[in-house]
Amino acid sequence: MTQQEIPIFDANSTMFQNIGLLKVAETATRQHGDIVAIRVSDTRDLYIAGNPECFHYWRSHQGHFQTDLGDIASNQAITRMLLGDELQDPRWSDIWVLTANRMSAIARDFDGWLETALAEATKTLIRDLPQDGTAVDLRDLCRDWSIRAVCPAIFGADIDVAEIAQGVADVEGFYFAMSTQDAAETADHEKMPEFQAARGFLDKAISAALNGSTGSDSNLIAQIATAIPPDVSAADRLNLLRPTVGHVITEKLNIGGLSLLWTLVQLAQDPKLVADIRTECLGKDPLKMSDSDSPLASSTVKEGLRLFPELPFIYRITSEAVTMGDYVIPSGATVVFAPWLIQRDPRFWEAPKRFQGDRFLEQTKHDAHYFPFGVGARIRSRGNFMLHQLTLAARTICSSQTFALSPECPRGNIRPLLRSALIPRGAVPVVFNPRTSSAEPVDDHALADAPQ
After folding, report:
1. What transmembrane ranges does the database entry give (predicted)?
2. Which one of 33, 232, 234, 337 has the lowest number of neighbouring Cβ atoms within 10 Å?
């Protein structure tokens, strides 16, 4: 087959830089097809890979791509910079084995701690909703829920949500700086103020958990710390714990609660869907029921992730020339896999821009072109965890509340803006009202027992 020259879309202008990659990628692929080189500067092109075949190629040929990305760092590379690699040092090999064994030993307990944290976070979210018709900003509501749903299982019950929220924002700031600044600016990343703020947060949070817990406490740090010999210095102990703790946070924390936010934004505009989700929970406690018993809630969450994927664009560098379709992408090129495009493509989805809560009741129909978390075994584990988190929260909220966007919510605010993730452009005020039906499925006693 004759190889074709990859079309180029010139986005090296102030106008295209201002409208952002979401619109640039949509425009470029609409004009030139699924594979197109976007010229973002005089020296750099991004190769958009905008069809499912590109994902399947990546899944089958991961050795053809690397995650150490020259002047655009991948999430994996940035994570390694932030957490350090002390645990990989040969002199700590025995402790690496001990901590890995301890992680395996407490895996089932940790799952239970996470489930408890998720239930408590969801109860707290509902308990703290205004009862007088006052609007609440979904950004704050979902961010705090996401922290409470994970961090007590990692750091212990005594967490400062506002402090962790700021710390997570600092971590996101480091990721954003590393992925947008050029190689010269990020060459010595440890001197970057964004790195110092992010590393400082992690070290402070881990140190506080170490100082405030004992080996019998039900949290990750307390338990992993028991595997490190007592004669290891405090500084080394911190360096050895940080990679394990950081990777768990990366896997379990839905940053900013954004996936829940986008689902609730859509539900707030569809009272019938909210009512239908409530109906499938009647007579059951939504905090305890199986996800398989709430298929519409699960489908709604998956639909939210279709329109607003956790990773709208995924960056990789080719380690050799790769052939995708009729094109050869050269070695050393930055390839951008694009769930944002595939999951809104009318070739694969009926009415792709419409939020349709029941779309995923036939799940297998969509597997070949649905990549909200990326691809890979670890991604699959994270995806299953996130789907459960979001499904439990969505069905519990729908069971206990009616809600709608506030009339004061600017429509432009609920158009996504790409940073390190998809964020709203401003406040998203929503008015919640508790249901008064005697058939209320939420356990009122459990809500009353939520921590104050």
Report:
1. none
2. 234
